[in-house]
Amino acid sequence: MEYNNLLVEVTDGIALVTLNRPQALNALNKALLDELSHFITVAQEDKAIRVIILTGAGEKSFVAGADIKEFASFNGEQGERLAAEGQVNVFNKVENSCKPVIAAVNGFALGGGLELSMASHFRIASTNAKMGLPEVTLGLIPGYGGTQRLPKLIGKGRAMQAIMTAEMFSAERALEIGLVNEVVDLENLLPRCKEIAEKITKNSSVAIAKAIKAVNDSDKEYGFETEIKSFGYLFDQEDFKEGTTAFIEKRKPNFK
Ligand code: CO8
Predict the structure, then answer these.
(1) Cα-based distances in Å from 87 to 82, 83, 251
(2) Which listed CATH number (3.30.465.10, 3.40.50.620, 3.30.365.10, 3.90.226.10) goes with 6-201?
(3) EC no. (predicted)?
């Protein structure tokens, strides 16, 4: 698939994916979502990719939401389909990606933009980041998982307030409430995300994939079972032999 709204750059196992519609502050239109869905699917099987970093083009915005102009004339049925397709084809795929996905939040992360960063496995923000769910100002509610993921990340009361008031969190506040893991200057955002990604690439990718699955199941009643089964599965994998042998031989593991 040819990408017209994504820039993809793969270096040393790290895929830097830039959502590239700066003229619309990288708002998520159908074409961009289709491309992102395709990329995430293909990346699962691509051995050259071990970690994915998502960011927005330009210095102002990660993603300023779903493309309002595209859905402004939709009726209820079309709106429901848009939310359902987006959730299944993009947001859930990002969350369940077996390759770690880091959101490098470089400015506005609003509505669907905040939702995309929340579907990612964790978020690093630049000091100019502004994050919020302004959907009620449009007569809507978050439709790409925001009502479900925000309470898990920052607590129900804070999520309720943020959604009802549509207020934006500053980067500093987002850090304080655990919405982002770190805040750095804009110029250091990608270098810092790459530094974290590089650390991840040194570890066992098969173990990391299982860790993602187990952590994602942590709010399910079978979460502990997922952990137990994954733990057992990993004992039969090459990486376990390499990891334990390297420890005993006092050297760094060389995971394939
Ligand atoms: N959709 C479409 N175009 C957008 C969007 C958007 N979400 N955000 C910005 N743009 C466009 C603007 O229209 C403008 O285009 P143009 O130059 O052609 O007029 C261009 O980007 C630059 O934007 P501004 O001139 O507005 O830039 P400012 O710096 O003045 O303001 C803001 C920046 C505050 C981010 C402002 O652009 C804004 O409020 N944007 C909308 C934010 C928003 O409401 N986002 C939520 C959208 S709804 C949503 O995400 C729902 C998700 C769930 C969907 C489920 C299925 C429907």
Answers:
(1) 8, 6, 43
(2) 3.90.226.10
(3) 4.2.1.17, 4.2.1.55
